[in-house]
Amino acid sequence: MFTKFNIANFEVENRSVRSATATATCDLKTGIPEQKFYDIYESLARGHVGLLIQEHSFVSLRGHAGHKQFGIHTDEMIQYHKKANDLMRAANDKIRICCQLAHAGPNGGAANKIQINEATAADFEEVVQQFKEAALRAKKAGYDCVQLHSGHTYLLSQTISDFYNKRTDEYKASDFKLLRDVLEAVRTVNIPVGIKLQCDDFIEGHSMNAVSACKIISALKFDFVEVTGGGQGVAKYSTIRAGKDQYYYRHVIQEFKAQNLLDKQPVIVTGGFENVEDAQMAFDDGVPLVGYSRKFLRNDQFLIDGDTKKCVRCNQCIGAIYKGQDAHCTISERERQK
Ligand SMILES: Cc1cc2nc3c(=O)[nH]c(=O)nc-3n(C[C@H](O)[C@H](O)[C@H](O)COP(=O)(O)O)c2cc1C
Question: Per the database record, which ranges form the NADH:flavin oxidoreductase/NADH oxidase N-terminal domain (predicted)?
Fold first, then answer.
């Protein structure tokens, strides 16, 4: 896990990935970071993570998630992304940084949010353009790569799921046209492109599931794929499960293996890993990179400090965001106050 690995045209120093994690430390309306945002990322960079995937940045106000999210929707935002990247690289000159491009779609907070079954082709074409422009901004801000957020019932993930997407036109779920168009548009920017892909909605009898994920990965060429899943409401599991489950997507990795995708495609698996010992289960399955989200909130130095701070998966970190606070670990906060 402390060996190097190549993704597209760059090398990552080790196999640990900080999976995108909203800090909710940006202005609610403008998406401009507060000082706390920079402090969080500088500290994360010092923790020797190989690839740091920034929190989701909204590509347009229509795709805003509704909390204190980072923005990449205008050229003015480039300077804030660059400032964070420069700080991280000064703290760790080997770090690789990825910009996560997101459109919350039906899940967002905008008054005119996109509903996938009612959207027009013009709505979707506008989204494609917005992802392309955001990728260009990410390139100008000095990121090593971008990641399309196609998970967690955000816009792209809903369009590839026949549970959410009931369309029968060219945008029907099985054709994944919006995702294909976004990828093609972002490719013209000439920056490595990965995806955080919904690989299981956990809704009985419907895509997305491991088999449909393999179909998408085989049809579209991404520089890396991060495995995720889970949903809301009817879904059997949430993305951010409470409790002790480990390695949430082993069944997806087994399907990738059965279809020989692990040999052809750099893969990150995220979900349910508490520490590097846990991650060994995924490395043993042949997965090259393992992602962590909540663990970095609990202890952003866990890769190098001999970690004793357990994340108990109480999910109060994400709960804080919905209360209008920044995403923080309440256990660590209490420990600091002692
Ligand atoms: C506070 C919080 C914020 C998150 N923000 C994002 C995000 O911005 N983008 C994203 O793709 N996933 C986000 N996630 C999901 C995580 O990246 C990850 O997929 C999930 O938490 C499972 O990984 P874990 O078990 O290591 O926490 C977030 C999770 C948490 C707890």
Answer: 1-302
Question: Residue 147 pairs with which residues in a beta bridge?
Answer: 100, 194
Tokens found for residue 112: 């005119």
Classify strands 5-7 and 10-12 as parallel, antiparallel or unpaired: antiparallel
Element (H, E) at 52: strand 51-53
- Check which CATH number belongs to the domain holding 183 and give it: 3.20.20.70
Query: What pLDDT is attached to residue 88?
Result: 98
Instruction: Write out the residue range of the structural domain in which residue 32 sits.
Output: 5-337
Nearest to 97 by CA among 1, 23, 194, 169: 194
> Best mutation site among 40, 240, 275 for ligand 1, i.e. most ligand atoms within 8 A of its Cβ?
240
How many structural domains does the chain have? Answer: 1
CA distances from 3 to 16, 33, 63, 80, 185 (A): 10, 33, 37, 31, 33
Q: Do the beta carbons of residue 77 and residue 125 sit within 8 Å?
A: no
Please tell me the residue having the least CA distance from ligand 1 atom 11. Answer: 20
Residue of the nearest CA to atom 28 in ligand 1? Answer: 21
How far does the centroid of ligand 1 lie from the alpha carbon of residue 295, in Å? 10
List phi, psi (to 5°) of 280: -55, -30
List pLDDT tens digits, range 203-221. Answer: 999 989 999 999 999 999 9
Q: Which residues line ligand 1 (CB under 6 A)?
A: 19-22, 55-56, 100, 149, 151, 196, 228, 239-240, 270-273, 292-295, 317-318, 321, 327
